[in-house]
Amino acid sequence: MSPAPSFQDLILRLHAFWAAQGCVILQPYDMEMGAGTFHPATTLRALGPAPWRAAYVQPCRRPSDGRYGENPNRLQHYYQYQVIIKPSPATAQEMLLDSYRAIGLDPALHDIRFVEDDWESPTLGAWGLGWEVWCDGMEVGQFTYFQQVGGIPVVHPSFEMTYGLERLAMYVQGVERVYDLAFNDAGVTYGDVFLRAEREYSAHNFEHADTAMLTRHFADAEAECAALVAARLALPAYDQCIKASHLFNLLDARGVISVAERAAYIARVRGLARACCEAYVGQEAP
Amino acid sequence: MAEFLLELFSEEIPARMQQQAAAALCRLLTEALAPLSPALSPASGPRRIAAFGAMAPETQATARIERGPRLGAPEAALAGFLRKHNATRDQLHDEAGYHTLRLDAPSQSAASLIANAVPALLRRFPWPKSMRWGAGSQFTWVRPLRRILCLLDGAVVPFDLRDGADDAHGLASDTLTEGHRFLSPDAFAVTSVEAWRTGLAARHVLVDAGSRRARIWAGITALAAGQGLTVVPDEALLDEVTGLVEWPVPMLGRIDAAFMDLPPEVMQVSMRENQRYFALRHAAGNPAPWFAFIANIEAADGGAAIIAGNERVLRARFADARHFWDLDRKTPLAARLDALKSVIFHARLGSQYARAQRLHDLALRLAEPLRAEAHLAARAALLCKADLTTGMVGEFPELQGIMGGYYARHDAEPAEVSAAISQHYAPKGPTDSVPTGHVAAAVALADKLDQLTQFFSIGEKPGGSGDPYALRRAALGIIRILREGGYWLALRPVLENAAPDVADEVLAFIIDRLKVQLRAEGHRHDVIEAALTGYSSNDVRILALKVEALSAFLNTDSGANLLAAYRRGTNILRIEEKRDARQFAADPSSTSLREQQEADLAQALSGVQHSLEARLGHEDFSGACAALAELRAPVDAFFSLTINDPDPAIREARLGLLARLREIMNRVADFSKIEA
């Protein structure tokens, strides 16, 4: 095993590892979202009693984190590797440590720590308890035992693990600037793939996104979500909730949402998430 | 005595909860096992809390006679008595006209008491926040509970956590525990407290939090000393780190010289909040390019990879900080004022921009009484909130004010202005210093007065439910700035100008906090009331000086004596005034003053009254008390006479003298408030 996997090799190793744990290896959800948790394979599947094991890469968009490609660590678009196992296995921590071994982080050489971090998503009405996982003082992942999603207490707590892939890759490759990451072993860097996109999307997010249009789209998504919930179509309804959440993030990045409005927007998205989750649970066989 | 050990082994417990939880475990066990008189000690670490110690091996057997209903009482009463004690009629005896029952409580073994008590105790253990895990169980713990080690004299005390159909993850007591997650991962059996402690130590777990803390501090200070450096003490950080490691391995890392021009506060906050690193200093006190941290592992390579990793992480952190530092300095504070319009101070109190304008006006007003140059105070007040729009304060809110000071220096604002901005939140607590310099004092005072008047104006006052806007701290800040800076300031006109509707309330609140503060300084509450009741000053310094003077006076012989005389005199007056249903008044021209003692007292009272007025006019309370002290001898002599002389004119004159004494002493303080 090479001690420094390329970015894509890191993903392939994690896929191989979690596939061996019985996870279905999903592809990214085809919508813009702020975190891998938003993927219906996590949010909706965490509800109800049915066992579930899944792993996938999810591109995440955080419009206000854009830095026009000039900051070595911050991106408005990056990848999360997301694992969800329900019910949480007794060996969840050991599985996680084995996954680090699989990508070349040896806990006998490195200082791996589980540091308190209570996870909460105000927009999803979700919370759980767990840790930031530290490796030599760097956060390399977020480990959560889900307790509530969409305002609904879960039947069986899931184990959720989120790896920040770029940061993890920078660590294992010993790289100080994200754009210098080896994307593959054939000389392509992360910058070759994404630098231009970071510049253009930063300009879009901060300067050009049409806020009047975004505000309309937010209202449209909100209305459509409610209509689909009424039609008891939980999955399409949830797509509209994801859309509304991303539109809110874009409006926030454009700086057109005041502090007071901000809380109101978050409450509106949370209302949508709750309705979708309730519709989803109501339709699942008992 | 029997040796007891209970260890609850779990996934990583938040550092801040471990020691409290171990203490709670000891307390709850001591309550639940009270008949065994346990003496327990706590132990805790990232993956376990424990209680251990000695207790009686069994409870004492007891026997007693319970008296029931009278013989011949109604049948229902007897049935109720039997039901209550779960007894039958044939167990009854007759004694002295009553049904009686012999109630024997046999001795119970400690093991059975423990096995009964512990499961219920664990089910309702007071974690601040607990969770479910896995499938099917409603049992909750702070993080998944993995093992229960419970021994009495080396033998396992058998119990499990099953609750009806809920198997609680099959958790049951056993003799097993685990050592260090990475260095000694396998479970091992334990037979005694000593074997547990030494077994864990051999497996890289130092289970006593106090020893871990001591080892950490000794370790990092020794490493620092090796480089000729000292560690910046940080008790809270030391506590937290103690809860993050089972096997502390202190290490030093280097800081890139390129970052050493960052403000030391920025470096320290970033190291502390983000990384839990300790800052180091050169012998001269200036920041050293090193940091100390604690690993949880003795690594195969001696820690080289761990140190390199931590140094890398800190480089990234400092690169972020440098980004904000460089970017923030491109926009002067003065050019940031407009941006404050979109920074909300409070939803109902408008923006920080409006606040800055108010502070500017307040500081102008306060400048003269605080001996500050008005234009400097006003400038600093206007700019002091501007750093809220900087990237650095967005990232580290605890650096507000401090960053403003740095940025003001960079903008070439006058030194007084930058110093005032950096100190305008001071004092942040009872141990924090007040701002130094008149301009800084004026701005810090303006900030706190604005905080109080604004929140009072929307009805947000501290109450039983707490003090979310830290208004008590603000009031104490005002008091300390004025007293420690030696500033005379009539608060009422300032408050009335700033917020006429709540001026009275805010003033009362500040004076109330002053009383609390004076009590904390050791002044008696009745002395404080005596000094301040009915006294109209609204200058906290004057009020405090008056209390201090009165306290000091009452601690002298003269003061204590005079107080006794005052009590004696006012008591007599009270009784006589009640009897005659009228007040007595001093009559300096009375011709019935024939005794020497009467003349001496009358003369002394006149003299004292004269000097008292002059001294009170200058708020010279020590002087006023000293003047009162001159009354002691003539008053003592006066009391050798009979006040209630049979001659009504003499009685009238003597009571008049007492009335005058009361009146004069009450000019200084309401001595009637002072308790015996």
How would you summarize this macromolecular structure in one to three sentences?
The complex is a heterodimer of chains A (286) and B (676). Chain A is of the alpha+beta class and 286 residues long.
Using brief descriptors, characterize the structure shown:
heterodimer; A: 286 residues; alpha+beta; 9-stranded mixed β-sheet; 8 helices; 21% strand; globular; B: 676 residues; Alpha-Beta Plaits; 5 domains; 6-stranded mixed β-sheet; 4-stranded antiparallel β-sheet; 24 helices; 17 strands
How would you sum up this structure, described in words?
The complex is a heterodimer of chains A (286) and B (676). By secondary structure, chain A is α+β, with helices and mostly antiparallel strands. Helix content of chain A is 43%, strand content 21%. Chain A contains 8 helices and 9 strands. Chain A has helices at residues 7-20, 40-43, 92-102, 165-173, 190-208, 211-230, 234-253, 259-283; strands at residues 24-26, 52-61, 77-86, 112-116, 119-121, 126-135, 138-149, 152-153, 159-164. In chain A, strands 1, 2, 3, 4, 5, 6, 7, 8 and 9 form a 9-stranded mixed beta sheet that branches. In chain A, a hairpin with a 4-residue loop joins strand 5 and strand 6. In chain A, helix 7 packs antiparallel against helix 8 (259-283). Chain B is of the alpha+beta class. Chain B has 5 domains: 2-58 and 110-202; 62-105, 2-Layer Sandwich (Alpha-Beta Plaits), CATH 3.30.70; 209-328, no CATH class; 334-509, Hypothetical protein af1432 (Orthogonal Bundle), CATH 1.10.3210; 556-673, Isoleucyl-tRNA Synthetase, Domain 1. Chain B contains 24 helices and 17 strands. Chain B is flat and about 100 Å long. Chain B starts with a strand and ends in an 8-residue tail after the last helix.
